[in-house]
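Q: Can someone sanity-check these two? First one:
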Amino acid sequence: MKASFAQLRSLLCVVACVFALGGNALAQDPAAADLMAAQQAVERADRADADQYAPDTMAMARQQLEQAQRAAQDRRERRQAPALAQRAAADADLARAQSEEAVAQAQLAQRKAEVDQLQRQLTAGEGR
């Protein structure tokens, strides 16, 4: 038996409805993407030892992430959640950058000390 145009049209309607409902499920919580990005930014900063090198900025990022998560759960404050999450992500990124800078500065200082030591050794060797 051949499928008629009416049956194909019904099938297309069903497929379109499934996609539309699936898209609505993802779009129902606009703060979810911002919260996920903020959480990932805090985790990246944590892996960069931001607690050691930028503790105040890292604490602020965690506090704002918690506020964003609470706001996302509260019906009255849900609109504020994306902005709070974005601030948390920005602070976490700043903390990570500060941490990476501090590590780079420490490595630079170590390399400079090594160069100075080698120069002293060369100078002492020339004096013989």
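And here is the second, same format, sequence then tokens:
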Amino acid sequence: MMRLRREDPRVVGSFRLHRRLGAGGMGVVYLGSDRRGQRVALKVIRPDLAEDQEFRSRFAREVSAARRIRGGCTARLVAADLEAERPWFATQYVPGPSLHDKVAEEGPLTASQIAAIGAALSEGLVAVHEAGVVHRDLKPSNILLSPKGPRIIDFGIAWATGASTLTHVGTAVGSPGFLAPEQVRGAAVTPATDVFALGATLAYAATADSPFGHGSSEVMLYRVVHEEPHLHGVPDALAPLVQACLAKDPEERPSTLQLSMRLKEIAAREAQGLSDGRPPAQRARSERPVGRQAEGVDRGDRADRGDRSDHYADHPTERRTGGGAAPRGQGGAQSGPRSRPSSSRNPRTPGGPSSRPTGGRTGGRPGPRTTGAGRRPGRPDPKMMRQRLIVFVVVTLIVALGIAAAQKL
């Protein structure tokens, strides 16, 4: 913040001005407060623009549209005077640095931070577009990082000036590195225009630089239209989505709703990874399903990787060679990749160490379980059946002989 200058007003409308927050092509922004102590960011339009009747009429239409915006990701419009000698409007004051200042002072953000900020901004743009407003000037300096989340500012002025004012001295909308190609060409501006700017903004948050580098306005505008963005340094989790946002054709860019949903997924995944201090391999094993589903996943993973070492670790009986298991990487049966026919997997010897209740697996199907000396459960022993048959016959003959003898008597 800066002190008020001699030429600065002290009171605008019902607001008392305290400090300068900044100045831009449209006017000066002040920190003000009303009689209740509510703080606002109040922007007063430049005198030369105030004399432009076309600007005044367009500004009035867009301030009216801005009043309809609902959602917590924008700075709420508090008051405006469109008929004043110098038109002004006041929005809710948002404490916190801009995204531009935070990255400039602290360096690029993490993938989790970028995805979380991008998801909130995308959701905010959904509300802006539903109100019939296109921001047209989304860039890091127009995003404030408040304790309650990011806030979008200055959308009303950006819309009011429009793309046609790019050729007017002092009224260029936005920074050349964040303008969409259709803005540069003077074509129709749509919500996809804001998606392009958001993609460039997320790239800046990841690299502390515009995806189109540096240079004069003419050079930057040429790159936006004709060259591909440089995304070196953008995290792998975000790079494909940022690339899609920066498509030259507006029809190829994702919608703000799609962007919000995808960024929320990325933010949740990245946050989960950062909150778990274990190595990635341990996290992957602990997150796998259990039971047969896990076994199927493990087999599929091993087939994809061509790695059989984990398979041997899961079946210790296959590691027994000559009465002992050879340590992995120290020669013997574990000294390198092995190629064995599927029929040799999980060999079993009746009564041996591999005859476990779980049994082996052949061809991916569970083998028959064994009990005792290798007999299958549920089937009686043939020898026992013969003994029982002999006993039954003998008993029957004895009973028959006893009945015959009794009849003779």
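A (reply): Looked at the second one. Residues 285 and 298 are 10 Å apart (CA to CA). The chain has 14 helices and twelve strands.
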